[in-house]
Amino acid sequence: MKKIILLSFTLLFLGGGCVSIEPIEQEVITVTEEASEEMLDEATTTEPTEEEVEHSIYVQFVVNVHDWVFPEESAETLDRLIDLHEEYQIPVEFHLTGATTQNYVDISPELMERLRTSEYVAVSYHVRPPHPMYSNFDTVGLRDMSANDRYETLFAFESHRLDMETGRYVDEPGGYQFLKDQLGYAPRIVGATNGRGGLEYSRVLEEMGALFTVLHEGGSNLEDKVHGLNKRPEDQEVKLYEFRVPDRFDPEEEFAEWTEGFDGSKDWFVNLKYHENNFYLGGTPFAPIYWEDWDGDRKEAFEPPYDLNASYDLVDFRSEAQQKGHWDLYTEALDYVDENLDWLTPINSVDLEGMLENIQ
């Protein structure tokens, strides 16, 4: 029990200029220990209401890396992109496939070191043909397996190297686990976890360390989940590589459009997307290898074994002017974000993981 004694005093003026101070008795208020703590809590820890929470606009530079057909050009492009992001001190997310990881380890270990150590780089994982989780490439019969067999098969694919000719895996390190081992941390974001087999595939990747999955649904929140993985938040997907070059796009006008849905009621996520081959190729590097209609809708997939040399005579390199135009466009986007940090916040998956920890 705490006692709070309130005293007041009366000044009495005596002869000779002397002053006497006499206390006047007041009511003594007693306060329990619990009540005292409650009074302190109410005075200092009032929680903000939902309306009072300040929300932000986040920008993510996302580069999908998948060109194993022209590995030298792919590696040179990533080196240049890292240079740019380190110069601007703006984070970036590179999504690597197993095949590109294998190439970098073999031909450019210094690039792997930069991917591993740059403070502005985070690396995630995705798949491309002939991985059986890629649409229309289930050549191993995942859909006809039991849930347990599907899990075991997908676990094997994500811990062994994918044979790009047969669509099967071989007895060498590969997949998500290989990238994780090279980086020294689990890639936070993955893809292709929806559809048939998505539940088992999500379980495999989550057990290996993945946190987020990419769905391109729009309007998703950080805490939304599918098959145990959090959805990577995305309110605006921007295929930045589809802008015509060397014509210039107006970043002020475009960012105004990309953020017009932000009303302050929730965080807003704008994802700016490129593929590394967009900077130097006029098409998808592996498309002629895996699709009959490679220059069309890509709905007619070849059957394995695949001709790994099919692309060299069919995929064209961009002209110098076109290549410069793509680099200029990408740099303009970096410029605009850098000049508008008062209302745009650039992030990558490291930041997303921190946000997730704060709401759990």
Tell me the overall shape. Answer: globular
Helix content: 25-40%
Number of H- or I-type helical stretches: 11
Q: Could you name the ranges where pLDDT drops below 50 across 5 or more consecutive residues?
A: 1-48
Order of helices and strands: EEEEHEHEHHEHEEHEHEEEEHEHHEH
Task: Kindly estimate the percentage of residues that lie in beta strands according to DSSP.
Answer: 15-25%
**Oligomerization:** single chain
Separation of termini?
37 Å
Largest sheet, strands/sense/barrel: 6 strands, parallel
Helix/sheet category: alpha/beta
As a whole number of angstroms, the C-alpha radius of gyration is 29 Å
Number of DSSP strands?
16
Overall mean confidence score, pLDDT = 88
Structure overview:
With 360 residues, this protein is an alpha/beta fold. 34% of the residues lie in helices and 18% in strands. It has helices at residues 33-44, 71-88, 98-107, 109-117, 147-157, 175-183, 198-208, 251-258, 287-290, 320-339, 349-359; strands at 2-5, 8-13, 19-24, 28-31, 57-65, 92-96, 121-125, 161-162, 169-170, 189-190, 212-213, 225-226, 229-231, 236-239, 268-275, 345-346. Strands 5, 6, 7, 14, 15 and 16 form a 6-stranded parallel sheet that branches.
